[in-house]
Write a structure and sequence with these properties.
Two copies of one chain form a homodimer. With about 260 residues, chain A is mainly beta. Helices cover about 10% and strands about 40% of the residues of chain A. Chain A is built from four helices and 16 strands. In chain A, a hairpin with a 2-residue loop joins strand 14 and strand 15. In chain A, helix 2 runs antiparallel to helix 4. The two termini of chain A are about 35 Å apart. Strand 14 of chain A pairs antiparallel with strand 9 of chain B.
């Protein structure tokens, strides 16, 4: 199933949409957070009529597969930017709530970069990612094509690198093009960098995820790097950078999550 | 005027508050973004009854001084966390809209840090910050006590450092204690790091600001560091770290802003 199909939304009224949280985009029965955000952002984008620039989602409950509803409220629609909130509901329960601003980048103008794309072995020479957790390979890994940096996959063998970092390539299965909405998935599709910290390899539930879309990706797989810089008092950060095949930064993400137990 | 007084809110109904955007907390007539966020977060905190953990605000319009209203909607109130949205309205116009999750850190448990507090000359030996922009010293600089790293204030003399970074101390005037709500102000009180990039020193309007509260600050001034890593296509990021006098990370911030023209 293509990502575009898996995140399709159907308008049922002013700012109201039906959609399906499809099985196979989950980890252990809980829909991937980036996938869930992508469904909601598609509904928001359809309502606003402009692409997302910055999206924040707060995760309220685990998301089982099944029907869902999205209700979008336009807060302000200006000349350059428009802002909306939305809530995705499953079985009548608010599961993900979002606030986002929509608009276009304005190419050109001054440019400064403090760092360049993350260095990775070539995509073609990299192995597909093993499952992050013990047990059968998640179905999700058949829908996306993640190829981890070999230095960052040791946690799988009980040999975490000691640095809370994961780097690797991200693509959709079948070379499906990656748009601004698919960046939401890319921002939350890798195993958590905390798995390389030496802490228990277990679910680190996202409380909040913010995704800044910094450009429209060129065709081809994305270079991704995620790290957790501060883990303490039951919470951790996770910040990500995503670069396209042309060497442009296309996405920055950051989340606050609960420390795995 | 104390920060606590300047951000006071008055309940006028279920989740509804009146407040005042006070003059003197602005830059050129537009209320400081962190100050405005603090007013709204105080209303949200009063409604939820727990301190903020992660707050995202989207800035919709400049905020002149005067009366304002805040309307808070509780989205979910769980055992550990509660999530709410709010909109701050001035003259009937939505000016700042927010999404936030509330709860407590859980001290103890595993801890990992990729870096330590930013290195600064001692607070007592540092000079109070000059105004960031040309013209008279903003009244705001009498209410907060910012002491910039000497290497980062050159933009004021037309000699930007070339690195889009600002570091320095933050305190409230009169040694007023800094709580989780005052961290919203600290997260947006410094001159934008883009001023040191060599780009024009002019207003960089915040589109989105997210503040993660990572701890309750110990008494004393805060060590702060902000930088813009990626400036392109009319937008820039700005990420911040704030450390307390005991050496604990108490806040992480990130914003997306429009590039100054």
């Amino acid at each position: 199933m293509h990502f575009a199909t898996a995140t399709a939304v159907h308008p049922v009224g002013e700012g109201r949409f039906d959609a399906t949280v499809h099985p196979g985009w989950d980890i252990g029965g809980n829909a991937n957070g980036g996938y869930l955000m992508a469904i909601a952002v598609r509904a928001m984008t359809d309502t606003i009529g402009r692409p997302p620039l910055t999206v924040t989602g707060h995760y309220l409950r685990p998301a089982p597969a099944g029907e869902c509803e999205i209700e979008v409220t336009t807060i302000r629609s200006g000349r350059r930017l428009a802002t909306a909130s939305a809530t995705l509901t499953i079985d009548g329960k608010a599961t993900l709530t979002l606030l986002a601003t929509f608009g276009e980048q304005t190419p050109g103008g001054p440019s400064r970069q403090m760092s360049g794309p993350v260095d990775l072995p070539p995509f073609e020479e990299s192995a597909a990612a093993p499952s992050a957790l013990k047990g059968p390979r998640p179905e999700l890994m058949n829908r996306i094509d993640i190829r981890m940096h070999p230095e960052d996959s040791g946690f799988r063998r009980g040999a975490p690198s000691g640095t809370a970092q994961v780097r690797g390539w991200f693509a959709l299965a079948g070379e499906e093009p990656i748009d601004a909405i698919a960046l939401m998935l890319a921002a939350d599709a890798f195993p958590p960098p905390v798995f390389n910290s030496g802490l228990p390899v277990a679910w680190a539930p996202t409380v909040e995820l913010t995704v800044h879309v910094r450009g429209v990706p060129a065709r081809g797989p994305l270079r991704c790097a995620f790290r957790s810089r501060f883990i303490h008092d039951g919470l951790l950060d996770e910040e990500g950078e995503i670069w396209d095949s042309a060497g442009a930064l296309v996405c920055q993400s950051r989340q606050l999550a609960l420390t795995p137990r």
